[in-house]
Amino acid sequence: MPASQNKIIVVENLVKKFGNFIANDHLSFDVSKGEIFGFLGANGAGKTTAMKILCGLSHPTSGKVTVAGYDIYTQTEKIKRSIGYMSQKFSLYEDLTVYENFRFYGGIYGLSRSEIHSQTEILLSQLDLSDYKNRVIKTLPLGWKQKLAFSVAIIHKPAIVFLDEPTGGVDPITRRQFWDLIYKNAYQGLTVFITTHYMDEAEYCNRLSIMVDGKIKALDTPAALKNRFGCATMQEVFLELARN
Amino acid sequence: MIQISNIEKRFGEVTALNKVSLSVPRGELFGLIGPDGAGKTTLFRIISSLMIPDAGEAKVAGLDVVKDYVAIRRLVGYMPGRFSLYQDLSVLENLSFFASIFKTTIDENYDLIRDIYVQIEPFKHRPAGKLSGGMKQKLALCCALVHKPELLILDEPTTGVDAVSRIEFWDILRRLKDLGITIIVSTPYMDEASLCERIALIQEGRLMSIDTPEVVAGSFPHSLFAVKTNNFFLLLNHLREWKEALSAYSFGEYVHFTPGTEQITERAICDFLKEKGHTEIQVNKTKPTVEDSFMSLMLKKQNQNAS
Q1: Which positions 119-148 of B are in contact with A (Cβ < 8 Å)?
Q2: For the domain that residue A84 is a member of, what is the CATH number?
Q3: Is A133 inside any structural domain?
Q4: Is the pTM here over 0.80, yes or no?
């Protein structure tokens, strides 16, 4: 198999302008199937803009982008079916039960009743939460909600899941359990595209890109980045790049 | 500056604060460290007289938070966790508004806010709602400072803020502390704990530990090893399954491993990992961090609840 077939996200010279402001300035990178790809940058560096484009929610000004083999200009509906999305801010309907949330999102993605049922069983047993199927979301601890939000985001078996600061505000044990879940799914072939402000979490990614002022300033494995900048931690690498 | 004893607060069946006692001397930079839902915001609202406790007593500068709330509000600058300024007023209008509420002017206390304000001054005619996250945060801090408070209460000022802006924000806090302002600040980021003079770890409405960050970190009750091999995630799983393990948590590129007994040495861990097929094995005794202590205290409490 040629290497290019293993690339699930391919971005070449992506530019996005808002008036005179260049939010994404010639971004080029690719992400392989099953990879955990960390997308880092300071607030306002252009991460959200790029992520919206990759999710098919916004069009680039110029450049070539394919996601899961589909073109970002003409096949956004196919892209949306191939991806899952989870953010810290909006995830689950608080006044619906666990099962109702799965049924709702499964329905949106066009899953049949029996598919929704079997996927819910599988995902809940993976979390050890099968007994809580009929509990209303708002009565559950934050850490559980976050794991459930992740499961809901992958109910339609997407090729890629986008995680936008998924671990903000949770306790340190739950944060690590969430990463266990990410790794388990990546091992099974899911591609994970993640943003985070926790620099220790940056170390858990297979590769990282660091954006500064709309450009990708560095892209490599955490070990190679630390090596190149002569830093002991990713925190130092990030500060080195983002401050200059 | 702050004296709290046995504060309790319930919301229906949820106990948000469970017999919390705490004192913060004048001029201290004090951190309240804990995850969402731990009770940080509730405690801050009680201290700033915005919420009445169910039981217990809280005093700010010797004034009672329930009886003397009018006087307390003059002394306190409060920056809530959610951006709460007027989105459709400009930067300058927001600042003037907060100054006028406290019967003062921007000029009168300009010294205090100058370092922060100059960074947002180029945007002074922009509506607050149109500022970037970092700019909003700086404006909110200016508004909380404009009446020259004795006590500054900051509820998660750095949540969702990138690593660079977080460091800048803490630099600002240290400068304010040097001007004699008492500061209590909450954060879910454990690495920020070391920037405070003293910290309290809070989880499920209880304070688990109150001391300097060094003492809190040093109170970790076991040996701790930083371990790294060629395969990080097999390493994590193998260490967790090991009968000698108490806990194994990822910490950046290392796993922090705590054995169940003190007899386990670097050598024994190394041998175990070799047997499991790992290569490039590194095992070193390491100094616990505040985050190690936090997790250890959390586990201890969960075990107490279970038994």
Answers
A1: 132-134
A2: 3.40.50.300
A3: no
A4: yes
Q: What separation in angstroms does the CA of A80 have from each of A106, A165, A206, A212, B280?
A: 13, 20, 24, 27, 42
Closest residue to A176, CB basis, from B163, B188, B250: B250
Does residue A204 belong to the interface with chain B, where contact is any CB pair within 8 Å?
yes
Residue A239 belongs to what domain range? 3-91+160-243
* A74-111 pLDDT, tens digit each: 999 999 999 999 987 767 999 999 999 999 999 999 99
∠ at Cα A223 (A217, A227), nearest 5°? 70
- Residue A85 covered by a domain: yes
Distance from CA of A32 to the nearest CA of B (A): 19
Q: Which of A141, A169, A243 sits opposite B164 (nearest CB)?
A: A243
**Using CB atoms, which residue from B166, B203, B250 is nearest to A204?**
B250
Q: How far is CA B64 from CA A3, A176, B21, B181, B289, in A?
A: 69, 41, 15, 20, 36
How is residue B170 written in tokens? 């803490």
Q: What's the structural domain count of chain A? A: 1
Token pair, residue B27, equals 């001029």
- Interchain CB distance below 8 Å, B162 and A197: yes
Query: What are the angstrom distances between the C-alpha of A45 and each of A21, A41, A81, A213?
Result: 12, 6, 28, 5
Quick check: B207 and B20 in contact, CB under 8 A?
yes
Would you list the DSSP string of B249-285? Answer: EEETTEEEEEESSTT--HHHHHHHHHHTT--S-EEEE
Domain-embedded: residue A137? no
Half-sphere exposure of A179 (CA within 13 A, CB side): 28
Segment-wise mean pLDDT, segments of 10 residues, chain B, 307 residues: 96 92 96 89 95 96 95 94 91 96 93 91 93 86 94 91 86 93 93 93 92 95 94 91 93 92 92 95 95 90 76
Residues 203-232 of B with CB under 8 A from A: 203, 232
Q: How far apart are CA A189 and CA B287, in angstroms?
A: 36
Residue A152 lies in a domain: no
ipTM of the complex: 0.81
DSSP string, A58-117: S--SEEEEEETTEETTT-HHHHHHHEEEEESSS-S-TTSBHHHHHHHHHHHTT--HHHHH
| pLDDT tens by residue, A30-64 | 999 999 999 999 888 899 899 999 999 999 999 99
Residue of B nearest to A240 (CA): B164
Mutate which: A18, A35, A43, A176, vs B, most B CBs within 10 A: A43
